[in-house]
Amino acid sequence: MMKYVKKRGRKYHYVRRVPLDIQNEHGAKVVQVSLKTDSLDMAEQRATLINQHLQAYWSELGKEGHKVDHVYQTALMMNKVSKMKYQSAEEIANQELAEILKRSSIATEIASTSLTDVLLGGSKKPELTLSKTLVKYWSLSKDKTLGKSDNQVRKWKNPRIKAVKNFISVIGDKSIDELTRDDVLDFKDWWLERLQAEGLKPASANKDFIHVRAVIQLVSDNLRLDIPIQKLFERLTIQGSFGSTRRSFEPDFVQGTLLNKEKLKDINPLHWLFICAMADTGARISELTGLDANAGEISLDSVIPYIKIQPNDIRKLKTPQSERIIPLVGSSLFAFKQLPKGFPEYATRPDHLSNEIGKWFRENKVLPSPEHTLYSLRHCFQDRLTAIEAPDKIQAELMGHKFYRPKYGSGSTLEQRHKWLSKIAFQVQAD
Fold first, then answer.
1. Is the pLDDT of residue 68 over 70?
2. How far is 120 from 241, CA to CA, in rounded Å?
3. Which of 137, 219, 369, 422 has the fewest Cβ atoms within 10 angstroms?
4. CA-CA-CA-CA torsion sign (401, 402, 403, 409)
């Protein structure tokens, strides 16, 4: 870092040549910023901070949707050192004299005329529209997709894309620093009309509000835009949206209908075996389709047959506690005996499998209500464990949920889990 720290008179400066391949995009050949200190230690700390943000900015130059005015971007880096946010010339003029003199003093220490313009309000703040804000959001939220598979990243991105597109369809692709409370209320009114006209759940609207707010919040915070998020989005929730809309199956329905091949005789045999596998494991759809038999994740030859749900090359796990071993009993043991390799056809397409089975359910009017889905099998699995009063820790370990107590020991054994699952095992009616 010290190679970028140079002393100019009594004060240290950060001086670094702009790489040749981005000089045109950056708009200058050299970046020189006063570190406003005569302390070498303090200069190194401030230079490190500037260097980090300069590197991040340079890495984005040239990427589609990331070309933001270089003067404004450099000013943002200066803000992190001087704690002085961007203001227009009019805003500066309304400040106390001491504040104006402070800005002028800093500006005279900076070699770049463009930076002087910024600090004194002469540079125009770039327009950051909603669509550009979403693009910026992806680069700022990479930590949220670490360790996720391509399919999981897609599923994480899609609701945010949908929410921002919906917002744009109502108010237009406005710059986020021009958003008003009326814009947000217009969006709420639009959703209220949709809910009434299309019979949608309020949760659909509230999720849009949450995603739009989160996107704008993160970008505003990182670019020091000081957008009044709280004021814009306060009291926006549409009541009646909390809790899952999925309902649990009654065990008798699962036993008498879903696991009765005669009643589901027209269903794809592979789909039916998947229902059998899910019924007595309670595993998530992607957990079952992502099992890698070649990695020993399906064990039928052990004293107690089991499946091992762990991160692999096919898919990542939703949470750390999702990693677990589930004994095979009843319908799940039946299913994996028929398919010892699992469901490789849907290994990277769990949503496709869910949609196919769901479509067949709807077309054949199999399910008790529109609120019931394939995922209701997982809810049923939880209810059955609760009904036999299985210990909370056993339930959490089988469901892949977090157990909200201090962790002691190594957890339950395979034998203990098998004992409890045997109490709720379904019987398969295949003929």
1. no
2. 48
3. 369
4. positive
